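Quick bug: Phospholipid-transporting ATPase output formatted oddly.
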Amino acid sequence: MAREAEETGMVTGSKVKKQRKKKVKENKTRIVHANILYDHAKGEENPNRHYANNKIKTTKYTLLSFLPKNLFEQFHRFANVYFVFIALLNFVPVVNAFQPELALAPVVFILSVTAIKDLWEDYRRHRSDKEINHMDCLVYSRLERRYVERYWKEVRVGDFIRLRCNEILPADVLLLSSSDPDRLCHIETATLDGETNLKQRQVVRSFFDLDCDFDPSKYNSIIECEKPNNDLNRFRGYIIHRNGRRDGLYKENLLLRGCTIRNTEEAVGIVIYAGHETKAMLNNNGPRYKRSKLERQMNVDVFWCVIILLVMCLFAAVGHGLWMFQYGDKRPVFDVLSPEGTDLSPILSAIYLFLTMIIVFQVLIPISLFVSIEIVKICQVYFIHQDMDLYDEETDSHLQCRALNITEDLGQMQYIFSDKTGTLTENKMVFRRCTVAGVEYSHDANARRLAMYQEMDSEEEECMSHGGTLTRRDSVTSHQSARVVLRSQSTKSHRRTGSRAEAKRASILSKHTAFSSPMEKDITPDPQLLDKVNECSSQLDFMRFHSQPMSQLPSDLSDIIDFFIALTICNTVVVSSPNQPRQKVNNALSDRSSLTSLCSSSSSLITNRSSNRGCSSVLSSPSAESTLTKLDEERPARGLEHAFSPVPPNYEGKTWAAEEGELRYEAESPDEAALVYAARAYKCSLVGRLPDQVTVELPHLGKLSFELLHTLGFDSTRKRMSVVVRHPLTDQITVYTKGADSVIMDLIKPPSTGKKLHRKHSFIVYRTQNYLNLYAADGLRTLCIAKKILTKEEYACWLQRHLEAETAIQGREELLFESALRLETNLQLLGATGIEDRLQDGVPETIASLRKAGLQIWVLTGDKQETAINIAYACKLLEPEEEILTLNADSQEACALLLEESLHYIQAKFLCTSTDQAAKTFHMHRLGLVIDGRTLAYALDKNLEDKFLAVARSCRSVLCCRSTPLQKSMVVKLVRNKLKVMTLAIGDGANDVSMIQVADVGVGISGQEGMQAVMASDFALPRFQYLQKLLLVHGHWCYSRLANMILYFFYKNMFVALIFWYQFYCGFSGSAMIDQWYLIFFNLMFSAFPQLITGTLDKDVSAETLQQLPQLYMNGQNSEEYKPYMFWMNMIDAFYQSLVCFFLPYFAYADSDVDLFTWGTPITTLALFTILLHLGIETKTWVRNLMGSVIALFFTVALCYNASCPTCYSPSNPYWTMQRLLQDPLFYMLCVITPLAALLPRYAGVVVLMSEHANSFPERVRMFCIMSYICY
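Here's what came back:
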């Protein structure tokens, strides 16, 4: 049989091979065969040979490719090409100015430093890769007929892998078998995206009904699936069996590399994607690189330096030509002849001199500036990471810097765009109150419990000296997509996935359950509602005892029991028992078949976590024939007593009472967890969830098993989710729906029979809507609960059309979306819930501080308008004394009219005379703007965006409600491009990714909505309140340091002007009075090293002062440290200082017998003293002994060099030059007088500027700054 299977596989493989040749151009799918069929075949005959192996390599270089590849990358920077060109030009004899080998030294040094840094980073990647590639896993061997241990790097596409509990997946694997009795496999994706909630994956339907363990040797199917891609939420394909049957493959059948097996003892799968083709590796983009605003300004000034260089060289060339021309036919004795020994014409001499002067003046272009900026930025990022004030002990999370080259942009932000849920709020959903059947239950005891938690938090903050208590206010958001859970953890590149460190971290995370803090779990029930639940349960118990139908239960009590059943089962919560993997039970299927007559319809629409996708994906597809056939089967009539199962199925021998204390809920969103815990508080507990049934426990009644027919997952378009179950009490097919009130209330239909029922229903809807408005005003997150009863014929009709939609090839998502809409109509309202989402600590204070710093804060949220406004007041985004402009329009014409009226109102109120003037003004008024999503869509139209921007600019606060992810990014892009301002976007969810990527700086909150925002961000913070110190302190410091360092580098490089002045005395011949060793290393070593220190450690103001006086941040917003005129002022000042440093020694040594270098060395020394003292004036925080160390280094090098080089450059030589100067009193007098004379204008200018700048601040601020500066 095995031989026949092998031959069949070979034939099939050859056929597929021919087909693949025809489809090479299409390149849409991949076909995977089992490798065991080709164990004895040659490598060329294995159809999987073209796929990537599982060995990962994240390094960029090899031993042979490092040098050429690294140089090639470095030469992508134009400055490096320029410097190499200048160094090579020096090898041309007719134009060279220095020794060619010596001229190469600076370039080689710069390239070497960068190369060593790149080599070290690549070596670290190599070590990480080696650790991952040599991890062990179990791979099936046909020769040994068992699973054998192999390294991860030896795994190939088509291999069968056995996975055990707590084991990390080595590749993307299609699940074919599981020890779980329901053919499920629980995985944890903490090492992939930081989420700690368990997720269910399901065995491929073809292998679902196996009565024995999976045997890889009997596998003879072929898998056809999509090409490798980076979409973690999508997988499509088919498995083709030998008999021609095809079964669909979906995301729920795929286990991704880097995930960890949990609560499942054993699973078997076949590798679909390996190595760099896995979804995790395709998502590993690494750090992001941007160009900062300061760097763009610097590039303009570099261009001006090039112009200055060319002008100086051209001036020298013209001067040399004129100087040569004045001799006529009489050539000077020191004239340089051509290579042929003939005289050069003045014009040709001028051209050669032009090239020579480019070599001499090359340091005018700051060669060391670029590498110095990189070094300083790396050091700045290091110190930011070491700031313990940005560390969150609760989540063990640090700030992360993912973009290494825009740290200075943090000090120049002008607009902040923030999400609300999870960013301003904690995203800890706590059940607060509810209304059922038009009756409201306030849960006052539960409110007091939450107040106690607040007091405990405040006392803890006082004990830890974190400042005063923070008044917490209710906060709100509308129900958005069921989002994935994330315990805040540091983001790590996937190249670390699978390492021991990641495995340990995953193990630690698995011990915790998301959304399960005591504040969220321990809900105090409302006494009135609890009495009704007990009354309802008692009556049901009585009816069960007397075999009475449930229809005799009063409608108000029936609504209550349905309400809590909906809270319990209308979700995707996984019930798990930690450290107890479930075992496979061979008779599980037969036991289950006795309980159900309708097949398990697992074709559920699962939660779509990506908020910008409008429809849900398909879990799996049973055959339509089998489902409809079982619908036609007659179910035996059964009494109420049969609805209760004292021992739930599939858990033979287990006692639920013993396990119940160990059960934990793994929810995909905090909303679901809050509602399940609320139901549990009323003794309506979720105790088990299987693919085809949900088991709940009711008071006095025991366990109820609901047959789960379908799950229609939540998505951002429908804004609701539904479950279709067969009710065990009534045997009716029931649809339970929960979702946002804005959509559920429109789907409610009053009963068609009876005026009394119609009036009662209308009254319930009216009362519920009033309570919903009250909840929103209190800042609660509102959800509506409804149900619908279907006849068997209605459900069969819907199911048939739904299965057609599932099997459609074209437009499957749209058809599934329409199918869900057909089911969720004509609902019966059960009640509504209010869930509290508390503000994060320090949010109001942070917003107030950022506002004082001149930052404009806009909140873009998907929440309903009323609750968003309430949160805006709670976090001090809106103030009570502010006027609120509310823009709600139903059409574009209405929106245009509203914008026009708002502009006229602002003009009349604040004395603006015209629309154009209003559009140009930068004044912020005491106005707040609130706009909903529909109106925002109209306002973002090309014809209205300018008016919208004019209105929004005039307002102090802007709140955009019900906004989509696309609208968020459009708003950010509009403000950034139209106003030409620096923007920062901050959020924590997948729906914030687009605006984070569009903004100049994107900040992700490593909160509870997944890692998508963090992975797309430039910086990641554990909490919103840390944004204050990141911007006001570190942003201010980074900008101030780099701005001053860049200006200093331009200034000090004008040192070459000393040589320019000397050209007037040497016939513009390109000669230099400064030793070429000093000339080459002056900028590279002596004057650059001090600025590296100050650029990393300088602090103009202390951190405490910057936080207490946020107004100081405006210095960076207005680019006060680096304005265009400052560059020219520095150039002019450098020219003046070069004149002083040149001519004072010139006149001092005039008519003396000193040689050229004896006169040039004092000039070099005086220039170094002047530059260092200039740095001392500009530096705000003196680094102890820095200046003295540099001066000592210079003299040490000079003395050693002059003592060891007697005949270096004959006939002139620097031997003993510095030693003689140190014996000359004139040299000491020049060292005192020259720097003072050179720096006198600079010092006077600094004093004047500081006086004017200080006068611009209030007296209180000035005194505070002076005292802080003195103490600092």
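Actually, after a second look the formatting is fine. The two ends are 85 Å apart (CA to CA). Closing.
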